[in-house]
Design a protein that fits this description.
The protein is elongated, with a radius of gyration of 25 Å. It has a domain of 149 residues: Adenine-n6-DNA-methyltransferase TaqI, Chain A, domain 2. The chain is built from ten helices and ten strands. A hairpin with an 8-residue loop joins strand 6 and strand 7. With 286 residues, it is an alpha+beta fold. The protein starts with a helix and ends with a helix.
Length: 286
Amino acid sequence: MSEFLNSSPRAKKRLAVLAVGTSQVVLSFEALKAVKLDLPCCDEQDKIASFLECLNRRIEHQRKLITALKKYKRGLLRSYFMTDEWNTHSKWDKCKLGPCCSKIGSGKTPRGGSSVYVDHGVMFLRSQNVLWGTLDLNDVSYIDEETNNSMLSSEVRCGDVLLNITGASIGRSCIYSLDERANVNQHVCILRLSQEGKERLLPEFLLQQILSDRIQQQVMDCQNGGSREGLNFQQISDFNIVVPDMREQRKICGMLNAFDQRVSCEETALHTLLDLRAALMQQLFI
């Protein structure tokens, strides 16, 4: 019965109504004895509780699998980009990021702030849209053509690498791989490879470097002694990167992208399990 009650939002709600107190909420024995609950027979309770317990174990297993995959991916990034002697990478070219880029710059908040957002138009990307290696458009905002025309210098192009440069999400990065028009605010920096840079460096390889501990440590080093979390464009331009030949870059990106796709699939499976549990809880107890 205890497992059944712990799984029932309806039962918890009824018990919460009977609890009294401010600093410490208490449910008296008298109130507990008087409460009336809709309970199935014990055999049915055991079946429901057993099924939900099994589902919870499956969800926990899925979470552990995702954590393990991300840890392994991080280990791969460290093996490529974090060793002091670069190990077998002694033949890789090394340079600053700046000379490889034709643009390192961010946008601005439109005059009027969020009041100028519209339902449709040009996507306006903010730091919450730039995650660790992925672009999240679930909460994307839009600006109209007039507003976008006043910010043409920060329009995003397909293949641009986006980097969060302020606040708690500093260091998060992804690639803009869409054909739709988009712009960014002042918290998101555009890293656009020059024509010469594209001949030496894949945007996907640059992204994987930015996500590695080596570049993330450079991001953190730029914050030491500062009163506010933020990167300026010169600091970004001074990032130390490696540039192997294109064949090696494609090979490395192919392997790392395969891990990213696997993680994405497992996260989708986790969300499906969580939705299933929520739907079952609603059907059984609400």
